[in-house]
Amino acid sequence: MDRRHSMYQWLRDNPFKVDTVVMIGLLLLLGPVYLVAGRPELFLLSCSLVVPLAWRRTRPVEAAAVMTVICLIQWALGIEPVAGQIAVPLIIYAVSAYGPAWASKSVLILGMVGGIMLTTRTFSGSAETGVLGLTIGSLYTVLIWMLVLFSWTLGDLTRVRRLQLQALQDRARRLEIEHRQERSLAAADERSHIAREMHDIVAHSLSVIITQADGGRYAAAVEPAAATKALETIAATGRTSLAEMRRLLGVLRSDDAATTRPLPGLNDLDELFLGMRAAGLPLQFSLRGQARRPLPAGAELTAYRFFQEGLTNVLKHAGPDARAEASMTWSAKGLELEIHDDGRGAGADPPQSPGNGLRGMGERVALYDGTLAAGPASGGGFTVSALIPYTEA
Predict the structure, then answer these.
(1) Burial class (CB in 10 A: 0-12, 13-18, 19+), 152
(2) For the chain, how far is it from start to end, CA to CA, in angstroms?
(3) Which tens digits make up the pLDDT trace of 152-201?
(4) pLDDT (tens digit, 9 = 90+) per residue, 296-307?
(5) Taking the CA atoms of the chain, what radius of gyration do you get in angstroms?
(6) Alpha helices in the chain (DSSP H)
(7) Domains of the chain with bracketed CATH
(8) Number of CB atoms found within 10 A of residue 356's CB
(9) Which terminus of the chain is more exposed, N or C, with fewer CB under 10 A?
(10) What's the distance, CA 126 to chain centroid?
């Protein structure tokens, strides 16, 4: 089956070679007859009609033009039809199948007119006259027309099939390109999602660990119990982060062993706040209003990551003895989130390079048609607020 397909593919990809072989075969079949009969002029005429068939698919218009000129010369000189005349219906088929539309219509008209011209010349010098001669001539013309119409119709059907196959191939190629683009976009979106999750987990956990490690180092000499508590917090934070990292990386696994632990949501905020307080951040939280409708799991994850990233930034950048206030308000528009601290603000201790925290928070909120605002507070400190509407619920 593969060999047959390869042979068919080669025949389709090499039309000139195939047509040249067919042309040579016709020459060998038709030419020697006239040489044996001692009619070299008819041999040359027959060969001149057959030779253009080598270009019937690669240059169908030029081949048809050459053959038309030869037929007109033959008609003008009154030379009788030869065996090479079989090339005429073949070239009509080729132009109809592989030539432009105007050439296809032209060869059809020329074939019809040529049938009348041939009949007229053939029966003008014939002994048959009157009604009988007219009847025979008309029948001869009709037969030629049927041959021309058959060749042209077969070529036109071949053209339609070829165009349909080409359209299907183009459509398959476009679908393949679109599929590759969709896979690339999906992969980029997944990479962005994983990057946000990795940042939220690693930045929060490392900030808590660094803060506790610094505090424990200074407290070890004065208050060993505080150092022990700091080490316990570091261990607990490390275990939680390790579990979160395994859960996140488990999504990338293709086997059934990947964990299906649910993503954190609003119900996990208490645990998050306890961890922040244990890390040494004085924190007050207030909840106002009630939800008009539940938010999807993705929106709850966005709210959780908002508080996680915002409080981590307070822990990292607000300075010593900074206090934080977090609030969550259910309004008519959606869920309003806010974090305010009384620390050093955005002007102190600027980062060496742009961070991904606020940008990641903005991307998460934007996924649910929300808005994010961040900047120094009027009375000092820094404020980050976000609104997650009900549109995705």
Answers:
(1) buried
(2) 56
(3) 999 899 889 988 988 888 888 888 888 888 877 777 776 676 666 666 66
(4) 777 888 888 899
(5) 43
(6) 2-13, 15-36, 40-50, 60-77, 87-98, 101-124, 130-219, 224-250, 269-278, 297-317, 357-366
(7) 2-125 (no CATH), 265-393 (3.30.565.10)
(8) 16
(9) N
(10) 69
Enter the tokens of residue 330. 């259910």
Nearest alpha-carbon partner for 393 in 334, 308, 320, 340: 334
Report the candidate in 331, 359, 342 with the shortest Cα–Cα distance to residue 283. 342
Provide the phi-psi class of 157: left if phi over 0, else alpha when psi is between -120 and 50, else beta: alpha
Classify each residue of 299-329 as buried b or exposed e, where b means 16 or more C-beta atoms within 10 Å of its C-beta: bbbbbbbbbbbbbbbbbbbbeeebebbbebe
Q: 């998050």: which residue's tokens?
A: 272
Q: How far apart are CA 191 and CA 248, in angstroms?
A: 12
The Cα–Cα gap between 156 and 164 comes to 12
Q: How far apart are CA 102 and CA 324, in angstroms?
A: 81
Is the whole-model pTM more than 0.70? Answer: no
Beta bridge partners of 374: 384
CA angle, 291 then 293 then 295, to 5°: 90
DSSP string across 282-349:
-EEEEEES--SSPPPHHHHHHHHHHHHHHHHHHHHHS-TT--EEEEEEE-SSEEEEEEEE-SS-SSSS
Task: For 60-103, write each residue's pLDDT tens digit.
Answer: 999 999 999 998 888 888 888 888 888 899 999 999 988 888 98
Angle ∠(192,195,201) on CA atoms, nearest 5: 145
